[in-house]
Amino acid sequence: MTTTDDGVPSYYYEPPNSLPNMDDRVYRGLMAIGTLATLSLTFTTVLLSFITWRMINWKSHYSSAVGRNQSIVLIYQLILADFLQALGFLISFHWVSQREIIGPNGTCFAQAWLIQLGDVASALFVLAIAVHTTYQVVLSRRLSYTSFLYSILGLWGLSILLTVLAPIIGGRFVFQNTGVWCWISAENEALRLGLHYIWIFIVEFGSIIIYAIGFYYLYRVKRADAIMIQGSSSESLRKARTAMLAYAIVYTILTLPLAAGRMASMSGNQLSDEYYLFAGALFTCSGWVDTLLYTITRRALLFDELNVYGRRTGANAGNPSSHGNGTGFQRQSSTDSILANNGFGDFRGIKMERTIKVELDDIDSEGARDGGPREVYYASVEANKP
User: Fold this and answer.
1) pTM score, two decimals?
2) At what angle do helices 198-216 and 106-139 cross, to 10 degrees?
3) Furthest C-alpha separation in the chain
4) 183: closest CA among 159, 163, 201?
């Protein structure tokens, strides 16, 4: 068996392990993938920079730290994973310029590594968003911030592990041309299944099932239960949950064609390069589509930070403009704080039911700044009075 100067068996550089002569249809398809990857890379870079800046300078824009909004932090991780994936597909321009896909080599390894890491990480964080949202809906609870951060680190650790295991188990030549880009070679189907496919299908179908359970519980089981907030607050909560569901739906639409094609090839049904080019182009859209989705749903996800305030008693209580310096307003976003201010302390003792009237200033409106009418909310609560 002949080898190159790098010790790579020469048959790896021959079809089908490599693509030494790229025809026009693959050339045009990879150009489209590279262009969409550039778009996704640009969008995700801008969004990551924007969110990072707002996390650092949140006091100038919000009533509480954006970095402690768990939904925003999860989406931030998803966009970061999309960034890595787009970076991997951007290497398509290299293959286009060479008119060939040759591997294994450093470029092929880098593309396969970035695509595998970005793909698995985005899948895990889509699932995490589904679990996190449903956990809040069903149990009406939120993870402590420390536990939440450990969960984030754990998901990234699992993503890196599933990427590192490919060359550890499959050897140094595991990343090769797979048709129109580099990834885990076709001779390592078991690794493809264990390190990639199974996680993608768990996310695609698991997240939809998890959201279905959450929405069923919210609208059918808890409709007449302990706390129902009417008016704008209820609408904001509904929009936030719907916004989080949108990420799972978008992920499933963009990834299912590629995953289905790979599974078809495992069962012996070989699909054309045109199919994989189309599926890859669709998959590469994840970055810019998720970025646009965040732009559309941003206010629904930040309704606590943007809109919910309670007036603090004191010298500045009658001055709506004093919210800018932080002395006239106190954020009052949780149901617990509303209950505490209306006679419900520690939830032990006699069960009581009470309807609470909450008046809030819409500080973003002209009417509120001019002393206009206040927003009125009613919350029907059932709790234990000590």
Assistant:
1) 0.73
2) 20
3) 87
4) 163
